[in-house]
Structure formats: structure tokens, C-alpha cells
Amino acid sequence: MTLNKTPVIALAGNPNVGKTTLFNVLTGSRQTVGNWPGVTVEHKSGSYTHNGVKYEVIDLPGIYSLSGGTPDELVARNFILNQKPDLIINIVDASNLERNLYLTIQLMELGAPILMCLSMADIAERNGLKIELQHLSDHLGFEVMLLTLNKRFDPKLLLRSIENNLQNPPIPASIFYDPIVEQHLDKIWHSTLSNNKLNDSLLDKPLAEDLYWAVQKTRWQAIKLIEGDPEYIFQLDEDDRLAVEKEVKAIEKHRGQEAPNVIADDRYGYIRGLVKDVVKRKHPGNWTFSDSIDRILLSGIMGLPFFFVVMYLVFMIAVRASEPVIGVIESGLSWLFLDALGGLLSLINTPLWLKYLLSDALGGGIVTIGTFVPPIFFIYISLSILEDSGYMARAAFIADKFMRRIGLPGKAFIPLLVGFGCTVPAIMATRTLENPRDRLFASLLTPFMSCGAKLPVYTFLAMIFFPQRADIVIFGLYFFGIVMAILTGLLLKKTVFKSEPGNFVMELPPYHVPTFNGIMMHTWFRLKDFIFRAGKTILIVIIIINILSVITVPNVFSPSHEKVSILQVGGHALTPVLKPMGITQNNWAASVAIITGLFAKEAIVGTMQSLYSGTDLSMELNEDEPSNNLTSNLQNKFGSWKSALAYLLFVVLYSPCVAALTMLFKEHGGKWTFFTFLYLNLLAWLIAMMFYQVMAFSGASFYWLTLGLVILSLIYTNLRYIGNRHERTA
Amino acid sequence: MNARRRMRQWGNRFFQSRRQCPCQRGDCLPMSDLTEGISGTVYCNNDIRTIERGIYVGANIVIFRNEEDEPNIIVSVGDSRYVLDRRIAHKIRVRVD
């Protein structure tokens, strides 16, 4: 048989079986990452050339079955059914053959040509399992080969095998169910589907190959109808639906089980027999090496301390290791885009606006994104190590105990932890949660974790206002953020997210020693995804904000009406709102810093340094206080430590930067981004205002505190309303 | 209207209880009630997600970890180890070996 022009090979298998590693081995660097149409499930495609023929490789999502219960399962099965790949390489974990064969059986039922690769053979051997490959291959009807993806792996054997299988596509063995089930399956197959009711145009085609495919597909559809798959059921007309229901009821009556469970049980019946036949166990003991480690790492005494040590290390790596790299990248990119490019544009007499747009706005945006890269890189390195080693699932199990109290599953601990580094990757890390409710809920809580960019702000102000106790204040601010996250979690659990967190069914994969290539590859894909997808949107927003910071308008808040930037006008306009938290009108620079903090939190320090020092902007500040000193200017304008601490509390809680908001928008849409922005700013104002009014109690404090309580009760009522609406729409 | 809603609630409860694998006294136990180290055979499971992961009727399981104050249990099924939500484990009935 001759090969198609570009044969398409799909890689299918359970999660964590080495699919992506094989994909990387086959395609090298010729890969693209994208989303499946209509859903946010990622897919990777790549290509390689062998003997002059170009092969396209598609990495399907890691799935346990083709039932279509999750978006991953749905896209995988629709790809196989609609795109009909020329070959499916089914990667199977040799150390867990029984569970992995469930997917294989479903692929066989689809009638697709399959080549099976057994990975994790070393773990299987360590667990005393010996798999008879030829015997297994004879039963299944297609080739089964061992895949040991270590340094000695020779891809030639696999490439030859792929070529052979494409030239002579194997026909998988047929799976038969209980005779009574088969009888009803036949009835559905012939009566309901024989006249092409599911729009199967393939049935009209005369080619034998297509006819075989069509027959397999119709049998598959009949099985899906028994399983009650809504995608197929809804395609039937009322009469056929009733006919199918009748057959399904007969099956359920015969077996005393729900029909989908009957099908799954029968599949496992076949698998159990097959495994018994082809797998020999050297020692029948049930406990493995990983179990022995788990007995220590998940124990009541060691489990929690070890978990906290690991999480502390992740935090330390993300924050500490990235610090020096951020400096290098920032200065390097600043030199390149601001100094060198700016200088070059000036040299060739570029118009000022164009120079600003290219060098300051665009270049400044790239510098800002560049500063996000190191923490994201180190966080992803840490996460990849945790994932590849198998500890991530254990960490989620341990964290589940306390995370559930605030309505989140254990896995949500990781995004929240990442939030201490940067909120942007933290929101991205919520993608590891299966349930959309959990993803959204965790994303809403990530801004409460003080990101790395807030630390300079805390340090700067704490050193000025609390020089003796700066460390306690900084620690207290971090702790305050966590407490507010817990309180908000409890509030949202009672109001907006009243349902329980997603049911936990999670596999504990065996422990592995992570490979350097694997970690770097995972990290690179995630980092690339951030730079080229999230980075693009973030860049646009940053450019807009940069432009707003230079477009000047007459200052309506100043009697002289001098021209200042739109951002500064915003600062002046914002100051009366911040008055109840101790920011007086002549301290408008603090309001401007809050606005620039939306651009990037570290900009708060830069803004304060520039506005409270002896620049032209500070002239207004220094009218009544001639001092040019930054520290004394700040102390004078804030008035007391109370207003400074209230300001710091506001900084802890108020809206995350535009990059994080953009990420939130990309993940959860405009409605929830607006909700987060409004909720965080209102909460920050309320807390800071109430703190200041209590600490600097006066006659007006009573009114402000009453107003605070009224707003708090309004927030609660509104959250309940949102929760009820959310519940109704869900 | 109220009567219809009550009827529906009663119907839901009735069919729900049928779906939740009723056991004869002493015949089987909810998986969540088994203590660590106890092995058994799955007697009834109507949760397709766990069936597809290998916790099918007739599968041998061993409880790896089950602490009352934890929301999840760890169960060993063949060569797999699963963290199962206690709510799901409660619905799976097991015959102790």
C-alpha cells in the first residue's frame, strides 16, 4: 500500500505515560502549540521526515477513556472520528497495563489502525511484571513494542515500525460484550443506524477501506447510544430515541446495572482476562517502591512538614532565584530598547511621537514582560520537577485537607503558592484544576497572595515609617493577605460558589527521577505559551498605559491649570476618595502611585521616589515643607504611621496589575475580571479606611465606620445575589 | 405545585437510593468505611468515572490510607493508586475479603 502524501499520526494514551516525551523525540523542535477549536484544550502538532516522507504528528490530550465526559476526552475522540488519522500510536504504561488497556479497547472499537508502545518498562520490571509482547500483540491484532525513552533509545526502530504499519494498516481484534448485550447492540445497530440516521456519509462510499471504517464507526455509535452519550442521542429522532431507550432498559434489566456501567464492566472483563494471560508476576505482593515512599511522605507525622518544606523551596526558588535574573534582564532589555533603540531613533531624526511609541511604549512594554519571565521560568521549573517526580499529586492530597475548608480542592494550593511569585503564572496554573468552578474560584483568590513585585513597596514604606520593626510589618502584610484570602474564600463559599469543590478522583503516579530534558521541555512549552500568547495582550495594555502617561491635558484640579499627564489628573481625581484612609489632598502623589501600581506593582516605588523627591512634580509638595529629602517628604505628606499603614493595607489588597487582569480576562472573561477589579478595590478601600478611622478615631470616624459596615453588608447581599444567579445559570 | 415538587423530590430520593447500591445487612460496606490495609472486592459501583479507572464490579482493592478527619481516601486498585473523594468512596460498596 502506498502512503498518503503526509501521513497523520496521533499519539493517544493516559496522562503521565510519556506521550509528550515521545512526541518530542519524534518531532524535535518542529512543533506548534494551539487550542482545539471551540475549547481551551491544548494540542501540539509537529512533523518529522523519514525516508523522504513527511509525517505529521498530533499529540492528543492525556485521557483515561473516550467517553467524552471531559473536554480532553471529547476532542480526542472527535479528532479520531473526524480526522481519521492514518495511525494511532497508543502509549501504554507497562507498570499499569490493566487500567491503560481500557483506552486501548475503546480505540480498537473505533477500528483505528493502532501501534502500541509500552512505556515505563523499567518500573514494570522493578514491580516484578513481565509482559509477553508477542502474545499481547496476537490478542490485540496489532504490533506491540517496548519504548524505553532513555539516552540509549534508538528511534530508527520505531520509525521503521511506523512506516510498516502505515503501509500495511493493522485491523484490531473485535471486542464482544455479554451475548444479551450484543443482541441488543445488534438491534440498535441494524434498526436505528442502518439507514444512515447519524449522517454518516461514509456509508455511501464504495471503497472497502471506507466501508470497514464506516461499519466500525456505526458499531461505535451503537455502543455510544447504549452508553447514553448525549452527542449521539440528540441526533436521533423521537421514534429512534424511544427504540434505543427500550433496548437500553432491556440491558439494564438483564444485568441489574446502568447501561454505561455494563459496557465499562464488560470491557474490563475482557481486559482482566487478557492481562491474566499475558502478564506474569514474579512476586504477587501488592506493595511497590512508590508505596514504601508514600508510607513516609504521606504519613501523619512526616506528611505535612515535608509538604511545607517542599512548598517553601518552590517559593524560595521562584522568588530568590529569579531576583538577580530579573535585574539582569531588566537592565539588558532597558539598554537595548530604551537606550540603544531610543538613541538610534533620535540619531535618524525620527519624529518624537514615533520614537516614544517604538522605544518607550513598545520597548518599555517588552521590558516589563521580560521582568515576568524569570519568576515564571523558575516557577515552571519547580512545577515541572514536582509533576515529573510524581509529588504534585501527593501535595494536592495533603493540601486538600485544609483547602476544602475554604471551598477549594487541594490542587488549588499550587496556584495560590505561585501567586507569591507572580499573579500572572498563578492564574495560568489554575488550568491544572479540572472543575471550571475551582479554576475560577482559585483565580479570584490568587491576587491576595502578595506577589514578588509588592515586596519592594512593603520594604520601601516599612523602612521609612517603621525602621525598627520593618521585618515584622512586612511579614504581617504577607500574613494579612493570606488571612484576607481565607476570609474571602469563606465569604465566596457561602455566597457565590455554594457548590462543593469538584469530586477528587486523582491518580497517584509512581515516583520517577525527573529527567533534565523533560523538565526543560515542559518549562519551555509553558514559557513560550506565556510569552507568545499572554504576552501579546499584556504588551498592548502596557503600551496603552504608557501612552496615557505622556498625553498631557490641563489639570482641572490645579488653579494654574498647567498641563499634566492623564495619569496624574487621575491621581488628583482619586485623592478625595482616599481621604478617609488618611491620604490628604496635598498627598496626591500617593494616589498617582496607586494608579501606576496598576501598571506594575513595583512602579509604586518608582513613582514615589520620583514624585516625593526634588523633581518638578514635587515642587507643589514642597510648598509648605521646603525639605527636599524623600524620607521626610513622605513622612510629612502621610502625616503619621497610621495613614502609611492604611496605605500599605490598601496596596496589599487592591486590584492586581494590568498583566494579571489581562490574564484573568483571557481565562475567565470580562465579567469575572470586572468583578475581581471591583471587589478587590472596594475591599482594599474599606479595610484601609476602617483601619485608619479606628486608629485615628475622631467624631467623623463614627460615620465612616457606619458607612463601612453598610458597604460590607451591601457587598454580602450582592455576592448572594450573584451566587443565586450563578447557580441558576449553572 | 407544591405537591408536584414534593412528588419529584420523593422520586429523586427513591431513584437516588436505588442508584446508591443498597446492601443487605452485613453483605457489604461502603468503601469509605474500610480501614487501612483492608482488602476487598468491589460489589457495586455506579460511578462511571471510577469504573473507567478500574474500580469496576469484581475488582480487588486495598485501602492504602483512610483517616477519618481527611476528606479523601487512598485506594490501591491493581497497579494503580487513587485518591478518592470520601463522598464517592461512600457510594462504592465493597465486600471484605
Description of the molecule:
The complex is a heterodimer of chains A (730) and B (97). Helices cover 63% and strands 8% of the residues of chain A. Chain A has 730 residues and is α/β, with parallel strands linked by helices. Among the domains of chain A are: 8-167, P-loop containing nucleotide triphosphate hydrolases (Rossmann fold), CATH 3.40.50; 179-281, Helix Hairpins. In chain A, the strands form 3 sheets. A 7-stranded mixed β-sheet of chain A has the order 2-3-4-1-5-6-8, with helices on both faces. The model of chain A is unreliable at 35-40 and 615-627 (pLDDT under 50). Chain B has 97 residues and is an alpha+beta fold. Chain B has a single domain (23-96), classed as SH3 type barrels, CATH 2.30.30. Chain B contains 3 helices and 6 strands, in the order H-E-E-H-E-E-E-H-E. Chain B has helices at 2-19, 48-52, 86-91, and strands spanning 29-30, 39-44, 60-65, 72-77, 80-85, 93-96. Chain B has a 6-stranded antiparallel β-sheet. Strand 10 (505-507) of chain A pairs antiparallel with strand 5 (80-85) of chain B, so a sheet runs across the interface.
